[in-house]
Write a structure and sequence with these properties.
The chain has 69 residues and is of the alpha+beta class. The protein is built from 2 helices and 5 strands. A hairpin with a 4-residue loop joins β3 and β4. The radius of gyration is 11 Å and the shape is globular.
């Protein structure tokens, strides 16, 4: 499964798109679901941990630059 991580203009958060809700909950990672952005907003400090965790679980993680619009 593919997961996209968008590094946009927000200085504090990044957007993660993909079927990762259960993985984030299981790891107790605080994240906010956004219907408008169709993804999970994570604090920038947690991205490296989440990337490593998703990679271990077999997700195909693809970082993207810019906003996800």
């Amino acid at each position: 499964m593919r997961v996209y991580i968008y590094d946009g203009t927000d200085p504090r958060h990044v957007l993660v798109r993909g079927p990762v809700g259960d993985s984030l909950r299981a790891a107790h990672v605080p994240a906010l679901w956004s219907n408008r952005s169709r993804g999970w907003w994570l604090r920038r400090e947690r991205v490296a941990d989440v990337l490593a965790q998703l990679d271990r679980q077999g997700y195909d993680v693809r970082p993207r630059r810019g906003d996800a619009r």
